[in-house]
Amino acid sequence: MALLSTDLELTPEIVVVYFARRCSVEVTLEETRAHLGVETQRQWSEKAIERTTPVLLGLFSIITLLADRLQRQGMLLVGTAAWYKKEKPTFSDAIAAVRRLLWQKIDFSTSGKQAEMVKIPQPLLQHFQHVLANAA
Asked: pTM value?
């Protein structure tokens, strides 16, 4: 691989450092495209970009902060796939963890006493939340 720079003052080491820094920015942009809808058909006008991009990046930041807290508490599950093993959580894992956190806080106390309801065991409910959080 050849790394080039138009700045002739940079040393080869600095060019490599700058190139390596690009990776985290590119990953962030790709994740916002894939999960938050940045650069979709809804964002083709200047006004749409000006309105929605800051909100989407704010949402990205909130999810990241909540996921970091969940990670420190040992509550951020790393999804697995049959074809490779992930060592670190992805943004998809972060979104799923935040969804599970929010869904666990839902209170269904508004159901009437006579409402038709089937009670399910807590482990089954948690399994449903886990599966649905990843699928949503």
From this structure: 0.58
Q: What angle do CA 36, 37, 43 make, to 5 degrees?
A: 135
Rounded-to-integer distance, Cα 115 and Cα 104, Å? 21
CB atoms within 10 A of CB 44: 9
> pLDDT band at residue 14, thresholds of 50, 70 and 90?
very high
Burial grade of 93 (CB within 10 A; 0-12, 13-18, 19 or more): buried
Could you read off the pLDDT of 77-92 as tens digits, one per residue? 887 777 777 788 888 8
Closest by CA to 64, choosing from 97, 106, 107, 20, is 97
Helices (H), the chain: 12-36, 46-72, 91-104, 122-135
